[in-house]
Design a protein that fits this description.
The chain is α/β, with parallel strands linked by helices. It has a single domain (about 10-305), classed as P-loop containing nucleotide triphosphate hydrolases (Rossmann fold, 3-Layer(aba) Sandwich). The protein is about 35% helix and about 25% strand. The strands form three sheets. The protein has an eight-stranded mixed β-sheet, covered by helices on one side. It has a two-stranded antiparallel ribbon with strand order 3-4. α1 (about 25-35) crosses α8 (about 285-305).
Length: about 300
């Protein structure tokens, strides 16, 4: 029998990926499933060392480790892991400035989302479940340009220039963290409709994944299928594909199965799969909803000592 974890030790989920990869959208649905009152969300972007204007003067991007207080982030993760509160920094994305610190209390589940949360061994060791989000690059570009112009005060040219400046640091510091993830999630627009999202999960054997046999497609036409594949490093992984055009009936069957596997998550079913498309319109995606439920399954099992670390 697995050992029960200490009652006051939070479950830690990491959601890491490049800017505008969909980390917050994914995390928001997971928090809703578990109950927002039971989840503390820590934004790793709050540990930026400099404001936007100062970074430009120093010719730094926020993706560079030296542009962030990663030593403090690691200390704070360790404190939260022990159930202790922290006084964390705050970065205001709307203005690109640093604001006064705020207190964050540890809760039963801690979700850490950001650019560099797997950068050090000390940080990685804090997580029970590690997710890396890598959407189709054209989709991420559209999301980032739309978000930065609508919410962060950039002109379209400034947003494009920012992406160009970040490309080298992304390759050097963000992408290598992919190798530490238990689950790699890739969203892509469907061929027919860019407002619908296909989802592909690379499921590594570092976690005990759920038995999805009862709802898998025998012929591969129902929009939910699992296959053995090889990752970019040549290692074997399970590859779960969820079509953006999965029929609602099929999606509900998968959703019901996942809910049945996590009876410990007694919070009433929350609306899932909500995201903003590249035109700024609110959408609901079955593939996103099922992705949020699948990751929640691992968090719930980690709470009961069933997810190997």
């Amino acid at each position: 029998m697995p050992c029960q974890r200490p009652a006051n030790q939070p479950i830690f989920l990491g959601v890491v990926g490049d800017s505008a990869a969909g980390k917050s959208t994914l995390a928001r649905g997971i928090a809703a499933i578990l109950g927002n009152d039971r989840v503390a969300v820590l934004q790793a972007d709050d540990y930026h060392r400099h404001g936007r204007a100062e970074r430009r003067q120093l010719n730094l991007t926020p993706l560079a480790p030296e542009a962030n207080h990663l030593d403090i982030l690691e200390q704070h993760l360790c404190l939260l892991r022990r159930g202790q509160p922290i006084l964390k920094p705050v970065y205001d994305h709307a203005t690109g400035t640093l604001r006064p610190s705020e207190r964050l209390e540890a809760k039963p589940v801690v979700i850490v989302e950001g650019l560099l949360a797997y950068h050090s061994r000390g940080m990685r060791d804090c997580f029970d479940v590690k997710v890396f989000v890598e959407p189709d690059e054209s989709l991420r570009t559209s999301w980032k340009l739309a978000r930065d112009c609508a919410q962060r005060g950039y002109s379209l040219d400034e947003a494009r220039q920012s992406m160009e400046r970040r490309a080298e640091d992304s390759a050097a510091h963000i992408q290598p963290q992919r190798s530490f993830a238990d689950i790699v999630v890739r969203f892509a627009p469907t061929t027919e409709d860019s407002s619908l999202l296909d989802a592909r999960h690379l499921l590594r054997p570092t976690l005990a994944h759920p038995d999805l046999g009862p709802v898998l497609d025998a012929g591969g036409k129902g929009g939910f299928q699992l296959a053995l594949a090889r990752d970019s490093d040549g290692k074997p992984v399970d590859m779960l594909d969820i079509s953006g055009r999965i029929e609602p009936r099929r999606a509900k069957a998968v959703e019901d199965l996942l809910w049945s596997l996590i009876p410990e998550a007694s919070h009433p079913r929350a609306p899932l799969g909500r995201f903003t498309d590249t035109e700024g319109q609110d959408r609901t995606s079955h593939s996103l909803a099922l992705s949020q439920l699948l990751i929640t399954y691992h968090l719930v099992k980690a709470a009961f000592g069933l997810a190997p670390r």
